[in-house]
Amino acid sequence: MVIKVFLASLSGSTAKQQDVVGFLEALKIDYAQLDIASNEDNRMWMRENVPGEKKPTNGIPLPPQIFNEEMYCGDYETFFEAKEDNTVYEFLGLTPPPGSKEAQQAENTQKLHNGSGTEEHLDDDTTKKEIVEAEQNGDAHIAELEEDDPDKKAETDAQDDIAEEEEPAEDDEESRKPAEEEEQEEGEEDRAEDELVSEEEEEELRELEEEEEQASEED
């Protein structure tokens, strides 16, 4: 593709034309200068191919006018804006060379466009990391407070000891339950044995009384 720059060697806008040409040379972009002052075909072709909405009110576009083959790129004003924005290659319809500012801008834009989902994932990871760091910082802050305030450390240790003592207390209560149940069962067994003994004693007493009565009757 060849960039066509339509110029007028006798035009009063020579400075603008030289600005376009000098910038293209600095970027090492191949281009062709087409003089409309000395060549009627160039002048007619330029006028016919500049889009109607880009023409001035009198319908006659002024040089410099820039094309990429048959595709219209713009005039000096739009070229200047592209130069200020580092988008000259885009303005000319060319691919920016690797390492150029415009290529880096395009790469960054592509990364931002493709990285929306990645950013959400990173946000999740960042949130998790912040939580972990907050917990670690909280522990570190407590440790610092304990170092600065021995009474605070003693209170914390006491609370830990109480918590440790409360846990075995629950175990002791559970262990006491089976022991109480065993004692209750043993008591019931003892009562049953006592009742059995009492019945045997009563039976023996009745037998003795009957024997005594028989003996008295015989007497």
UniProtKB/TrEMBL annotation:
Compositionally skewed regions (Acidic residues) per UniProt: 157-173, 180-219
Composition skew (Basic and acidic residues), residue ranges: 118-132
Record region (Disordered): 92-219
Biased composition range(s): Polar residues: 102-117
Pfam families: SH3BGR
Domain of life according to the entry: Eukaryota
One Gene Ontology cellular component annotation held by this UniProt entry: cytoplasm
InterPro entries membership: Glut_rich_SH3-bd (IPR006993), SH3BGR (IPR051033), Thioredoxin-like_sf (IPR036249)
Similarity comment text for this entry: Belongs to the SH3BGR family.
Entry protein name: SH3 domain-binding glutamic acid-rich-like protein
Lineage: Eukaryota, Metazoa, Chordata, Craniata, Vertebrata
